[in-house]
Amino acid sequence: MTYDHLVKLIRRQIAATPNGVAMRHKVGAEWQGITYGEMGRKIDAIASWLIDTGVAPGDRVVLFGPNTPWWSIADLAVMAAGAVTVPIYATNPPDQAEHIVRDAGATIAFVGGPGQYANLSGVRGPSGPLTRIVAFDAGIALDLTDSCSLSVPLAHPVSPKLAARADAARLDDVATIIYTSGTTGEPKGVVLTFENLVTQFEGLDAYFQVTERDRSLCFLPLSHAYERAWTFYILHRGAQNFYLEDPKKVIETMQEVRPTCMVSVPRLYEKIYSTARHKVSEGSAIKRRLFEWAVGVGNRFAHTRNRGERVGPVLAAQHAIADKLVLHKIRDIVGGPKNFFSAGGAALAEEIEEFFFSAGLLVCQGYGLTETSPMLTCNRPGDFLFGTVGKVIPGCELKIAPDGEILARGRNVMRGYFGSPQDTADAFEDGWFKTGDIGSFDERGFLQITDRKKDLIITSGGKNIAPSRIEAVIGQDYYIEQVAAVGDGRHHLAALVVPHFEALEQWAKERGIAYDSFMAMVKDRRIVDFIGQRIEQRQAVLPQYERVKKFTLLSERFSQMGGELTPTLKNIRAAIAAKYAQAIEAMYSSTHHQDGSKKPR
User: Fold this and answer.
1) Percent with pLDDT over 70 in the chain
2) Structural domains in the chain?
3) Mean pLDDT, to the nearest integer, of 152-158?
4) pLDDT for the residue numbered 594
5) Is there a cis peptide before residue 374, judged by omega within 30 degrees of 0?
6) Do the strands 60-64 and 108-111 form a parallel or antiparallel pair, or are they unpaired?
7) Pseudo-torsion of CA 240, 244, 247, 253, nearest 10°?
8) Cα of 361 vs its chain's centroid, Å
9) Does pLDDT of 122 surpass 60?
10) For 354-380, how does the pLDDT look when each residue is reduced to its tens digit (9 = 90+)?
């Protein structure tokens, strides 16, 4: 198959299935659809408005809002006009949003609501480069004379210049500038071309089958390269994309929409797994034994079939019973059977992959970065190995540097960082992009990631420890929501732990204990002891030098607004270390103290 310019590929799909439903979004209690034909007309109208407004090829246009069909329509319209889309996370605070607008030199912005509009106050009108703002929500009161609601560009007639822009489009044109999450410093603009983006299609087409009959739930931020690239692919293949504005409603929406395939970060699978395990642990001994038996049968059945071996009559009968009593209930949580799930953005524990596989749900874990469009490797149906991030995709090469860093080269690797030639030069070595991740290949070509190179904790004893592994192991617990491991230059590891407050409140209520605040909860010795026991149970699988010796319970969640998390929910370690320096220091100066820190048994 020839992989052409992205906009041309989408236009071919529009022409092939004009009456097929491309997008669905919820209005009140109903899911409303937008056909491929309607989507195409809206793209043309907005692209024409941009051209007639004076947007030239290569100009930057900001997209700043939650997941809606309008986000994708505006995205493709900007590209159709020959301009460059600059996405901003809907949750970004004003200083981060303003930095991106100024750094990119954008003059037009599409915003999703009053919150995003207000967050651009420092860069609109006389105080900044923005001269026009288009509101997805027409109810926003805009104070720029040149600004407008979405209805204005949607009603715009098709420009005669639009066809010329399409004819002039090339694969090596810049498609988008995506600003990195900034875990280790100021966000940098990753410059991706259309060739970078459509290279992903080649990898997906080689291993996955997505058709017009498929449904995907779009709940990760579209400003993230992962969900955005997947959305492009869904529309390219003629499938339906369901847009979810509130990601907190993802599980209930999965049950309603019943997607056949979708992408996610590991946290979703971790929450489903820990909740299922917790409910089982609260049941009777008979129910617990039945659950474990059913999962075991499901696992043997799934692996037997995957190896291409015959399923014997005894196992087949056992599986039928296990599925009827237990396994189908696990699938129902996520909206029924799936062609496949995808996981990326962080490590997913092998134990959780096996759990879903036992229920007939394959989670294909992959690996990539914004700078690589994003996918570098993936597991795929019929060729996967749990505990790894799969094999290298077509059009890409990977190798391991002497210090263990993963280096990448290929058509999916970015052109560079926008306006930052030194940062671009520093990111490459002899033509290979330095991912910043540590990993290794096995003899079959499966890649295993250890951690971010800059995140490794080096203890005073010289041990190199990957904090993300410890955080993933402890974070699987139902009563624990967030974890940040610390210990660089120290004799042992410690951790800052954010409990699952609602679960703990229920646990306390069942024991006749009440709290008037989260602060009171995390200081209660009964709670501290309980969490300490949970941590010990979880980290029993870790070697001694990777185990947390002390921990402190926090009364506030890590958040993007608080500065501890990136928009993709990764820990910003330097910010956490600075904000909680006193609590961290206290853990290394005593065994028990008033802030809730103690040494697990």
Assistant:
1) 96
2) 6-169+215-246 (3.40.50.12780), 266-452 (3.40.50.12780), 456-587 (3.30.300.30)
3) 90
4) 38
5) yes
6) parallel
7) -70
8) 19
9) yes
10) 999 999 999 999 999 999 999 999 999
What average pLDDT does this structure show over 555-572? 88
When mean pLDDT is compared across 145-154, 326-335, 351-360, 397-406, the lowest value belongs to 145-154
Q: How far is CA 78 from CA 50, 59, 242, 427, in A?
A: 7, 9, 21, 28
- Nearest CA to 177 among 115, 103, 116? 103
The whole-model pTM stands at 0.89
Please say if the pLDDT value at position 383 is more than 90: yes
Name the token pair of 48.
């024409």
Residue corresponding to tokens 């059977």: 337
For residue 184, the model assigns a pLDDT of 54
Quote the CA–CA distance of 576 and 572 in Å, as a whole number.
Answer: 6
Q: What residue type is 484 in one-letter code? A: A
Per DSSP, the three-state class of 342 is strand
Q: Is the pLDDT confidence value at 595 over 60?
A: no
Give the sign of the dihedral formed by CA 12, CA 16, CA 18, CA 24: negative
Q: How many CA atoms lie within 13 A of 573 on its CB side?
A: 17
Cα separation, 79 vs 165, in Å, equals: 10
Q: Is residue 289 scored above 60 in pLDDT?
A: yes
Lay out the sheet containing 60-64: strands in order across.
148-149, 132-135, 108-111, 60-64, 84-88, 174-179, 189-193, 416-417
CA–centroid distance for 92 within its chain? 15
Handedness of CA 259, 264, 266, 268 (dihedral sign): negative
The CA distance from 36 to 451, in Å, is: 41
User: Which residues are 87's β-sheet partners?
Assistant: 63
In sequence order, the 6+-apart residues with CB closer than 8 A to the CB of 475 are: 270, 481, 482, 483
End-to-end Cα distance, the chain: 59
- Distance of alpha carbon 55 from alpha carbon 32, whole angstroms: 31
Q: Do residues 138 and 117 make contact, with C-beta atoms less than 8 angstroms apart?
A: no
C-alpha pair distances (Å), 26 with each of 133, 241, 408, 513, 601:
24, 12, 40, 40, 49
Mean pLDDT across the chain: 93
Cα 271 from Cα 338, distance rounded (Å):
18
Hey, what amino acid is at 577?
A
Average pLDDT of span 272-277: 93
Q: What are the C-alpha distances in Å from 555 to residues 500, 529, 551, 578, 598?
A: 10, 16, 13, 17, 16
- CB 548, CB 474: distance < 8 Å: yes
What is the pLDDT at residue 176? 98
Q: Which tokens hold the place of 148?
A: 């407008």
Task: List, as own/partner pairs, every contact residues 245-252 make where C-beta atoms lie below 8 angstroms and the sequence separation is at least 24, other chains included.
Answer: 245/25, 245/66, 245/67, 245/68, 246/66, 247/219, 247/220, 247/221, 250/217, 250/219, 251/333, 251/334
The sign of the dihedral angle between the CA atoms of 391, 395, 397, 398 is negative
Cα(117)–Cα(257) distance, integer angstroms: 30
- Per DSSP, 130 falls in state B
